[in-house]
Structure formats: structure tokens, C-alpha cells
Amino acid sequence: MLHKRELPASEFEDLNKVYQVKLKLLFWLLRTPPAGQVTKEDLETLFGKNSKLLSWFGARRLGKPDKRTQFGNSLDVLADKARSEPLQANQVANAIEHDAAFHQHWHDSSLELKFPGVFTAWLDPVKAVAEPFYDWLASEKGFPKDTFGLSHGDMTRAKIMQAYRPQSLGICGYCDGPLGEIGTKADANDCEHFFPKSKWPHLAIHPANLFASCKGCNETWKLDKTPMGNADEAGIRGTYHPSLLSGASLISVVAKQSPEHPMRVSIEIRDGAVPKRAQTLVNTLDLEARWSNDVNEKMDGRGVSVFVSKAFQDRFRGQTPDEAEIGELLDDSIIWARKNIGQEERSIRQAAALQYQKDCQLAQIIQELL
Ligand SMILES: [Zn+2]
């Protein structure tokens, strides 16, 4: 949403192969449902007689007729509904097919998701077939390379989260804070669905819908907030997207004096071109409050000069600079913070706080430092 994060091509390609299998299964159930209970023979017709997918979907996931698994039952329920309402089932399949290409049409002004849309009665039966794919991705084994014809090894959620690490430089793409190290207690490399899978289960393993975020964002996100609203035209136009439209270069971030306390700052985030997008970003992630609190906590007990005190020591080493030289130090610190946006955690909020301090608190900083 804030910093651009893109699933690398090799992971994108492999996850897309798995996603296409999921779509194939859904389209078959909706457009040409079998006459009765879904059988292994049906899957042979669908995937080909020699496909390794047969044993993967076979007995364990379908179950024998007398020991049907939950997933097997879900296939039957959706097929049954499709048999009784063939016209609508076809429209649902078309809607899902349309939505699966959302990433290729993100910049079309008329883009909206078509499913569930008016087909709310189909959400639960589609979800019961679509959502387990995410659970399988999240399992330790994930999707095996040979079964799904993948080019770069087995596909797991952990692999996808790892794939985002190099480009993230340890920074959360949603809030500009630290991501946390993988495998530590503070491991916060959490999997985010941009389109929540509870509302759009057909996109649950879509390769342009899974991103990594920090724990704070994940917990806020998990409140089931949907930055795209109902994923209608206005909703999609009113939000940034982690890979298709990132916000960092589009927003302006300004620190002001907090209305509650003269020595505290209050951060505001705006988008001059499309104000709604900045509002959505703030509402979804609570960024203004989180950034303001973070800056104020740093100053607590250490004064407003805390952001430049180390640079002050490094530059002047015991000498006494004049006021103009301290002003220059602040200018340089602002330039440094701006230059490091996306490369050092918390740079955006720091640049804003420093600018405010230079404009309004320079006398206080000089008093603290000299
Ligand atoms: Zn975050």
C-alpha cells in the first residue's frame, strides 16, 4: 500500500500455476457440473488421465463415497447448486474469471470486482471450495513441485513471505516500520491478503493478492478492514495497492503541533491528487496515530532534539556551533531522511517531524543542544 512490493517473477509464475488449477476446478463445477457426486473419474476427465493432480485431489481430499471429506462435500454442494441454477452458475464463473484478471486492469477507471456482487448466495459454496487452497498453501508441505508442474520447487506460504524479504530491506510495506526478523519471537513477516479471503475467497491464492507485513499492520488489518470498500469502481479507485499502486511517492506527510500538547507533534497524511486514497490508507492502518505516537514516544524524556542529537555529536565533537550551523544540521538530517525513504525504517515520519522541528522548534533544539 505504501511501499511497492512485488512478488518476484519465479514465485509469481509458480503460484499462478497453482491458482489456475483452482480456477479450473471452480469453472468446471460451475459451468459443466458432474451429474452426481464428484468422483475420481470426473477429475481424470478434468485434469487428464495421467495428471499427478489425480492422486493429490484423490482419496485423501475427496474421500471414498462413504467417508467423504469436508472438501469432497464442498465440491458436491457447489456442483449441485450449479446443476439446479445453470444460468446463474455460468454468470458466477464469468464473474470469477473476470476478477482473476484484476491485476491486469487495475488502472482501468471502470475496474470493479464482479464476484460476489449480486451473487451473494454463491459466496459460501464458492468459499468452501476456494478457501482450502489457502490452507494448503499455508501448510508445511504446501503445493508439491511435481504435482503442479512448478518450475522453482514446492510452493508454500513461507516461500512467498521469504520472497518479499530482499526487496523490503526489513521495512514493512504498509507502515514504514520494521518488519522483524524471520524465525524470531518478533517475527512479523505476516501474510496479508489485500482482498480479504473471507469476502473474496476466489482471490485467496491469487499471486497479486498476497503480501508480507509487520505484526502491527497485520493485527489492524485482521479487523477485517477492506481498503477497497465493496471493490466497486469507487472503492478500487479510492485505495493504493501494494504492487499496482503504491502510496509512498503520492502522499504528502506533514507534522504539526499536537492540539493536546505544545511539545508533541501530530502527523497528517494527504494525497493532493486523490484525497480519498490517503484517507483510506490512514483509516485502514491507523497510520497518523501510529506515526504520531511513535515520534512523540521517542521525544518523551529526551526532548525535541532527540532526532538530531547523535548527528550533532558526530558533526561537532565537543565544539560549539552557532545557530546557523545547527540549522544546517537539521536541513541535512531532513535531506537524509527523505533520501532514505523506503530504505531505512520510519524515514517518512522522521522527515516530517524534522521539518516541523526546523520550522517551529529550532530555538528549543538549540537550547537543548548548546
Ligand atoms: Zn506495518
Fold and architecture overview:
The protein has 370 residues and is mainly α. The protein folds into 2 domains: 9-221, no CATH class; 252-369, no CATH class. The chain is built from 17 helices and 4 strands. It has helices spanning 9-31, 40-47, 53-62, 70-84, 86-100, 123-130, 132-138, 145-148, 157-168, 215-221, 233-237, 275-285, 287-299, 309-316, 323-339, 347-360, 362-369, and strands spanning 190-193, 210-213, 252-257, 265-270. The strands form 2 sheets. It has a two-stranded antiparallel ribbon. A two-stranded antiparallel ribbon has the order 3-4. α1 packs antiparallel against α5 (86-100), α2 (40-47) packs antiparallel against α3 and α4 crosses α5 (86-100). The radius of gyration is 25 Å and the shape is elongated. The mean pLDDT is 93. The structure holds zinc ion. Zinc ion (ZN) binds at residues 172, 174-175, 177, 213-214, 216-217.
Number of DSSP-assigned strands? 4
Strand content: 5-15%
Annotation field: number of helices: 17
> How do the helices and strands follow one another from N- to C-terminus?
HHHHHHHHHEEHHEEHHHHHH
Average pLDDT across residues? 93
The largest pleated sheet is described as:
2 strands, antiparallel
Bound molecules: zinc ion
Write down the Rg: 25 Å
Helix content: 40-55%
Cα shape: elongated
